[in-house]
C-alpha cells in the first residue's frame, strides 16, 4: 500500500464526526494505551465465520485464487515500477528480489502453505504453461484498491475480470472454482489515494462506506463465479504502521487512525454477514488481520523476539528515500537491520517474513477449522 496516512484530527472530534455522519455506533470504551498497541474493544475472534461442520469437513480445496494489493502480490507489479524488485527485498526468501513487498514470504505464501499447496503463480506469468496453473493464480497488484488509486494497475474489479476472462478461455473451469479458496486483501490504498487527492475528513466516513459497498459487490461476483470459500482480510491497524508511528520515533500507534480502521472493519463485518444471509451460504469469512496484528504487536501477548515491533528493519536515510532507494551513483540510500527476522515490519508499510509468519500463526488454527485445511 502507499505510504500516505490520514490527516490527524482530535480523537474526540473524530468520534463525534463518525457518530454524526454515519449513524454507526462508535464503540465505547476502546482502550487508549500510551504504548504501541491496544485492543480493538470489540473482543472479536481471530477469524469470524459461521459454517456447517458437515460442509466444511467435506471441502478439500485444490486451488487458491488471490486478489488485492501488496499484502498479497507475489510478483505481478512490474520490475521498473516498484522497489519490491530491488535489493534488499527478498533478502530472507528467496534470497533475491521477487516482487514481494517484504524481506521474504507474504500472506499469500502462508495461506497457500496452510492448504498444502504452493503459492499460485502471478497472473503475468500465465503463459508459462498449464502445469503451472495447478495451484490457482494470483491476480493481486501492489498499490491497488477497490477503486483506482495512485498506480496504473488493475483495481479489484478489473482483477476479477481477468479471472472471468480466463474462465471464458477455458484456462480455468467451473470445477476449478468449486474446489477453490479465494483470498482477498484490501490494505488501505483507497484511503491513501483519498488523502493524497485532498479528500475532506468530513466526507471520509461516507467514502469508507463506499469502499465497503464496492468490496461487497466484488465478493458477490466471486460467489457468482462459483468460489466455494472466500476469505476476506479485515483492514490491519493502519495507525500502527511505521508511516503512522514515525512521528513519535516508532514508539506508539496512532489511535485516531485506528478509529477509522475500526469503522471500516465494523462495516465490513456487517457486509459479510449480509452476503452470507443473502446467499444462504457460509461462503464468506473474515480473516481478522486487525486482531492478529495487535496480538503480535501487543507486549503482553506478542512475540518476544520483536524487541521494537513498530520500528521497520529497512528504512530510507531520510524522509526523501525508501527501502531499496539508491542515488544517481547507485549508492544505497537506506539502512537494513542486522537481523530481519527480529523485526516485525520490513519497511514503512509491510511486515517482514517473520512478521507475516507470526500474524498467520495467530489465525491459522481458526482458519484451518473454518476452511477445513
UniProtKB/TrEMBL annotation:
Entry keywords, A to Z: Hydrolase, Lipid degradation, Lipid metabolism, Signal
SUPFAM superfamilies: SGNH hydrolase
Highest taxon in the source lineage: Eukaryota
4Fe-4S is among the record's keywords: no
GO biological process: lipid catabolic process
One Pfam family from the record: Lipase_GDSL
Secretion signal, residue range per the UniProt entry: 1-23
Family annotation (Gene3D superfamilies): SGNH hydrolase (3.40.50.1110)
InterPro entries: GDSL, SGNH_hydro_sf, SGNH_plant_lipase-like
GO MF annotations in UniProt: hydrolase activity, acting on ester bonds
Family: Belongs to the 'GDSL' lipolytic enzyme family.
Protein name as catalogued: GDSL esterase/lipase
Species: Trapa incisa
Amino acid at each position: 500500500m502507499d505510504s500516505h496516512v490520514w490527516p490527524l484530527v482530535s480523537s474526540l472530534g473524530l468520534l463525534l464526526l463518525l457518530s454524526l455522519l454515519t449513524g454507526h455506533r462508535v464503540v465505547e470504551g476502546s482502550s487508549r494505551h500510551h504504548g504501541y498497541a491496544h485492543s480493538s474493544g470489540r473482543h472479536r475472534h481471530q477469524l469470524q465465520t459461521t459454517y456447517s461442520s458437515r460442509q466444511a469437513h467435506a471441502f478439500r480445496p485444490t486451488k487458491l485464487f488471490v486478489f488485492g494489493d501488496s499484502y498479497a502480490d507475489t510478483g505481478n507489479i512490474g520490475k521498473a515500477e516498484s522497489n519490491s524488485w530491488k535489493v534488499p527485498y527478498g533478502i530472507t526468501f528467496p534470497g533475491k528480489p521477487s516482487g514481494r513487498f517484504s524481506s521474504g514470504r507474504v500472506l499469500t505464501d502462508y495461506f497457500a502453505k496452510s492448504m498444502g499447496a504452493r503459492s499460485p503463480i502471478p497472473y503475468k506469468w500465465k503463459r508459462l504453461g498449464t502445469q503451472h496453473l495447478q495451484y490457482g493464480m494470483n491476480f493481486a497488484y501492489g498499490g491497488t484498491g477497490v477503486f483506482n488509486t495512485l498506480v496504473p494497475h488493475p483495481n479489484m474489479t478489473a482483477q476479477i475480470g481477468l479471472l472471468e476472462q480466463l474462465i471464458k478461455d477455458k484456462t480455468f473451469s467451473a470445477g476449478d472454482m468449486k474446489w477453490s479458496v479465494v483470498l482477498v486483501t484490501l490494505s488501505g490504498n483507497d484511503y491513501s489515494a483519498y488523502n493524497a487527492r485532498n479528500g475532506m475528513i468530513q466526507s471520509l466516513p461516507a467514502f469508507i462506506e463506499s469502499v465497503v459497498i464496492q468490496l461487497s459487490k466484488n465478493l458477490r461476483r466471486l460467489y457468482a463465479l462459483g468460489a466455494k470459500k472466500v476469505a476476506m482480510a479485515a483492514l490491519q491497524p493502519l495507525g500502527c504502521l511505521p508511516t503512522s508511528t514515525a512521528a513519535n520515533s516508532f514508539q506508539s500507534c496512532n489511535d485516531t487512525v485506528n478509529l477509522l480502521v475500526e469503522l471500516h472493519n465494523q462495516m465490513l463485518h456487517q457486509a459479510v454477514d449480509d452476503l452470507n444471509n443473502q446467499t444462504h451460504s457460509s461462503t464468506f469469512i473474515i480473516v481478522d488481520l486487525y486482531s492478529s496484528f495487535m496480538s503480535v504487536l501487543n507486549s503482553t501477548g506478542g512475540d518476544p523476539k520483536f524487541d521494537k515491533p513498530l520500528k521497520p528493519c529497512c528504512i530510507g536515510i531520510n524522509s526523501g528515500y525508501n527501502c531499496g532507494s539508491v542515488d544517481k551513483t547507485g549508492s544505497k540510500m537506506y539502512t537494513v537491520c542486522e537481523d530481519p527476522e527480529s523485526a516485525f515490519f520490513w519497511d514503512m508499510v509491510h511486515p517482514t517474513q517473520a512478521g507475516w509468519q507470526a500474524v498467520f500463526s495467530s489465525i491459522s488454527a481458526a482458519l484451518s477449522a473454518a476452511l477445513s485445511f
